[in-house]
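Narrative summary of target 7.
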Amino acid sequence: MSTLSEDRVSTRRWAAENVDVKTVAAEMSRLHTELTHEDMGDDEHPRPRNCVMNLVIAVSDDQREEAAEKVVGAVAAGHPLRAIVLHSSAGGKAGLDAEITAEAHQLVWGTSVQLEQLTLKVRGDASEHIASLLEPLLIPDVPTYVWWTGTPPLGERGLRDALVVCDVLIVDSSHFSNKVDAFLDLAALADRLGGRMGFVDLQWARQKAWRETLAQFFAPEERRHLLSGLQRVDIACVGEGRANRVSGTLIGGWLMSLLGWRLTPAVSVSSSGSEAILKGENGQTVQLTLRSATSHDMHHGMLCAVRFDGHSEGNPFAMQMEVRADRSDHAHVLIDMGGEETLHQRLPLPDLDDAALLLQALSSARRDRVYLRSLEAAAKLVDAFR
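Modeled conformation, tokenized:
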């Protein structure tokens, strides 16, 4: 799992089937002690545990388990951690299988325990008591991130139990199987628990470049007055149907929460698009459209275009960001300030894998209040467009 050469990594492993949590915790402690005392002289201090977080990754199949282990290796290179890959299956006789890998890395400033990874395969009723499984295995006094891959079972006991030990819940709304209902459930959970714990959506992280480019248009002081002149916002996502347009509501919700726009009863929905009239604090009305688009190079549900236009002091203005149907690594940006020459820019859109998105999310605040406000407003859009 380490990116260092083998001669700079010390590794300890242990695995067993049908064990209890007490045994697993004891084995983790034993492996850690072995690593911290390896090649240590009588007058030397043990190697430190270099840990900044607990990362729990809940998976439901072997493919996701394999992907999770790759993500752990990539994250551990810059964020020393204890990782627990939790593979739960409700069927069969209750039981617990465990596999532990612990690594100490020889770094520039010395050697330290960089990664402790535990893979738990939980069967039967044991999957309903996740908190009692996790709590003895977590390192105290560091934050615990729980990444629930796929669609989080927000109404089931297993996830509710995991949230007891969770400081930050990580999801990817682009992978929800029932995007509309799951997104609304996520928003309801964030509304209840947002004051106690953080929420991270990797889909929100993917859209960072879009939000930054939109914000930069209005960043200069001389353009701030244009905000009150906005008339139309058009957001396009890949794929037919309302479910594939849910990701676009995150951009719409971000604008609503940022600019104080409110939903009105004027809403229309079709298979190709949804439309709502929003009202600003100064009485301005804005037409928000979410529409479906096609792309040969992008997954369904991905954001592929954002356009807006308006008038201010009698002068038109417009901006368009759009990904070509056959090229998803960048977006073309056009800025039209009316009488001035149209400006053309290129917005890089790197195809970030889960590890890169997770690292981006971990580097931000544990409680992203901008995201929470945007999620709340986006949920109102999703509910109105159902």
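The longest strand covers residues 110-123.
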